[in-house]
Amino acid sequence: MRIAIGADHAGYVLKDALQAAFPEVEWTDCGTDGLASCDYPDFAFAVARAVALGEVDAGLLVCGTGVGMSLAANRVPGIRAACCSEPYTARLARDHNDANVLCLGSRVIGEGVAEDIVRVWLETPYSGGERHQRRLDKIAAAEAGGAGR
Questions:
Q1: Would residue 149 count as lying in a domain?
Q2: Is 96 a catalytic residue?
Q3: Is 40 helix (H, G, I), strand (E, B) or coil?
Q4: 85: left (phi > 0), else alpha (psi -120 to 50), else beta?
Q5: Residue-number span of the structural domain to which 69 is assigned
Q6: Looking at the whole model, is its pTM more than 0.90?
Q7: 63 catalytic per annotation
Q8: pLDDT confidence tier of residue 147, bands split at 50, 70 and 90
Q9: Which of 11, 30, 71, 121 fits as disulfide partner to 6, beta carbons 3.0 to 4.6 Å?
Q10: Catalytic pick from 9, 38, 96, 132?
Q11: Of these residues, 63, 83, 84, 103, which one is catalytic?
């Protein structure tokens, strides 16, 4: 599996630890490369664009809470970014929502829990089914300008 990964300064250490924990993954590291303060949207957009363009199979983003990364990544059409703090949510994010970007908070979870979340997320396929697909189709329609107008 090919995964684009990115983090801001708060997520840098966990980003590198996760890459080391999953050597079977073909990682595309979109930065950052240090602890100097930086802006999370830059990395969220880089990862989300790589996913949306099909350059990679999925994306993984890490910031302090995971929230900022998920907000920014979800602005890119075609992205379904889920902020997860435990494995159950990660499993359902894939199974029901076909989440293609996983967002984690390095100040919320530790390295062991992060590894468990990533493992579950990687191993869980999208189940499909009419009810789940109907909901995803509504999200895609909203991205195209068909909702809330």
A1: no
A2: yes
A3: helix
A4: alpha
A5: 2-143
A6: yes
A7: yes
A8: low
A9: 30
A10: 96
A11: 63
State the average pLDDT for the chain: 96
Amino acid found at 119: R
Helix ranges (H only) for 22-78 are 40-52, 67-73
Asked if 101 and 47 count as a contact pair (C-beta separation under 8 A), the reply is yes
Residue 148: is its pLDDT beyond 60?
A: no
Does residue 148 form part of some domain? no
* Residue 38 clears pLDDT 60, i.e. is over it: yes
- Across the range 2-16, mean pLDDT stands at 98
Which CATH number covers residue 12? 3.40.1400.10
pLDDT band for position 129 (cuts 50, 70, 90): confident
Distance CA 99, CA 122 (A): 11
Q: Which strands make up the sheet holding 2-7, listed edge to edge?
A: 26-29, 2-7, 58-63, 101-105, 81-83
Question: Which residue in this structure is represented by tokens 């992060």?
Answer: 114
